[in-house]
Every structure is written in C-alpha cells, then in structure tokens.
Amino acid sequence: MPEYSLMSDFSSPLWAWFIFIVTVGGIFWCFYLLMSQTKLLTKEEGNKIQVTGHKWDEDIEELNTPIPRWWMQMFIATNIFALVYLVLYPGSAIFDGVLGWSQVGQYNTEMKVAEKKYGAQYARYLQQDIAELATNNEALKTGGRLFSTYCTQCHGTDAGGGPSFPNLRDTHWLWGGKPEQISQTINAGRRGTMPAWGAVLGKSGVKDVTAYVLSLSGRKTAGDLKIGKQKFEQLCIGCHTAEGTGNIALGAPDLTDKSWLYGSSHRSIAKSISEGRNGNMPAFGNFLGKSKTHLLAAYVYSLSRTD
Ligand code: HEC
Ligand code: HEC
Questions:
Q1: How many angstroms separate the CA atoms of 182 and 190, rounded?
Q2: pTM score, two decimals?
Q3: Of 87, 207, 230, 255, whose CA is between 20 and 30 Å from 108?
Q4: Which among 154, 191, 193, 194 is the best mutation to test ligand 2's pocket, defined by most ligand atoms within 8 Å of the CB?
C-alpha cells in the first residue's frame, strides 16, 4: 500500500470523480470518435479517388482520403497506452494504481537513499563542534553548497546581505556571532521587533531622534540633538541600551557603528524609527534537520572568522 493516498488531495470526493470522468471519459470519447470516422475501404474503393464535392476555381477539388492505416493504429495504441497507464499509475484520481507509485513515495525513497549515502558523513560532522568544523575544508564545502541552496535568496550568494537582510561576513551581529548563537538563529529562526514611533514622536520628534541616532556614529544632520537624546533615553534604551550599542538578546542593532541593516541613508533610518521594522529569519531546524543546520552554522561562522 502507498503511504499516501490520492484521495487526500481533495476536499470532496466529488472532485476525484470529476477528474476521473474527464480523464477516462476523454480516452473513450477519442476512441469512439476515431472509430466513428473510420471506414475501411474495400480494395476497389481504395483504388478510386474520392472527392468531397467541394470545388474551387475551375477544377481544384477537395479529396476525401481516409486516414492512413498506420496513423489509425498509432492512435489506437496511444489510447491503449493511456488506459494501461491509468491502471498502473495514479492518474485517474480515484485509483492509486496497481504499482502503488506516488510522488511523495518517490521523494521519501530518494531521501532514504540519500540518507544512507550521506548519513554517516553528516553524523561524523555532528560529533565535531562548530568552531572545529569551521576549519574543516571538506565540511565547509558541503556547508557552502547548503548555503547556496537555502540561504542565498535572502543573504546573497556571497552572504553579504542587502537592505533588510544582514551581512553574515562582517563582525556586526544582531543576534550574536558565537557558534551556539548562530546555530540557534538558524535552527529556531529570529524575529526582530522594532516598534513604530511615528505616532508617539510626531514629525519633529522623529527628526530630532534621527539626528541623535546619526550622531552616535559621528554623522551630523538637521535636528535638535538635545531633544533627540532625551527622547532616546525615554523610549529606546530599553532595547538599544543607553550607549545605543544594541542588545543581542532582542536582536536590537548597535546604532553606534556604521553598519545598517536597513541601509545607511537618513531616509531609511528615519523610516525605521517612525514606521518600525520586523525582520524575520525563518527557522530551518525542522526543515533541514540537525546535521545540516550544524554544517550551515559552521559555514556561517567561518565567514567572519579572523584567526
Ligand atoms: C526569507 C529570507 C531568509 C532566508 C531564506 C534566510 N535568512 Fe537568515 N535572516 C533573514 C533575515 C531577515 C534576518 C534578520 C532578522 C532580523 O531582522 O532580526 C536573518 C538573520 C540571519 C542570521 C543572524 C545574523 C545576525 O546578524 O545575527 C543568520 C546567522 C542567518 N540569518 C543565517 C541564515 C542561514 C544559514 C540561512 C539558510 C539556511 C538563512 N539565514 C536563510 C532572512 C533570511
Ligand atoms: C522593543 C525593543 C526596541 C525599542 C524600544 C526600540 N527599538 Fe529600534 N530596533 C529594535 C530591533 C529589534 C531592531 C531590528 C529590527 C529588525 O531586525 O527588523 C531595531 C532597529 C532599529 C533601527 C534600524 C537599524 C538598522 O541597522 O537599520 C533604528 C534606526 C532603530 N531601531 C532606532 C530606534 C529608536 C530611535 C528607538 C526609540 C525611539 C528604538 N529604536 C526603539 C528594537 C527596539
């Protein structure tokens, strides 16, 4: 028995019957149509040229030539093939097929084969700790391939990130760059919550706080720094700390460095403050399994390793 039944694809069994009727009925209908249009010619008739009676100009006539025999036979063979296929494979929607094949089944079988082939290797990597693996070229190659498959669409092919996706090559970490912190990020995911302050601060408040935030990394813009600092101490230090250096327990970025998750422009920093941000790093633990996330953590750790 297949581990997976076709019927579970449908919310109502009616749909399965609908597909069955269209599919199987279609085959019989083709067959009927073909037979109804076919007349085997007697030898005598076959030698005579028949015409439909349509004429163009003076003497261009439409011939009524029967379908070639070989073509007919191929068509019938196609119909028979289709019926045999529906008996063997799950194509008719109401029957799983005598071979018990399914996409899910095939996927599971392939996964089992892969597990057998690579399982031992992954298990060996799992024994080593992340820092140690990060010096193992063989492991890093596999980790790099996993990264290309699962991570580059957000973090970039070189892991350099982009607006809203952190750079994983540098030493600025939202959630911490120690092996176990990186591993936790990849396995369980992370969600950064920066509240929106536009309504609380008002337009000029946002301007002043933005100016103050920019001053933390040595930039000067219009705005009252004194008011900005006051508001910052009132509203922001719970997460970003009094010095503005951030807090990895909350994923609150360091605002004193020159690395910006959402871009360094005045506009995007003011936007973060007035509208808030909600960066979401998906959890990969359940999806990829322990040994793959372990390798990925080693790969990410190796990217910013300085020794
Ligand atoms: C759908 C997009 C997306 C994918 C896919 C993705 N990430 Fe992320 N990742 C993010 C976002 C967004 C953040 C920042 C979360 C935040 O704002 O706090 C992040 C954060 C991280 C961090 C923390 C960086 C720091 O500064 O602390 C690490 C490490 C990381 N990702 C690794 C990975 C790895 C490894 C993969 C592949 C298995 C991956 N990511 C796949 C979007 C993604
Ligand atoms: C509840 C905690 C919390 C508070 C309070 C908070 N922030 Fe944030 N802030 C965050 C987090 C978390 C992020 C990262 C958001 C993300 O990962 O998407 C962030 C991001 C930012 C950014 C974007 C940084 C970058 O690198 O692009 C700025 C700017 C910022 N905060 C300024 C402020 C200011 C100014 C205040 C006070 C008015 C404030 N924050 C209050 C948690 C907080």
A1: 10
A2: 0.76
A3: 87
A4: 194
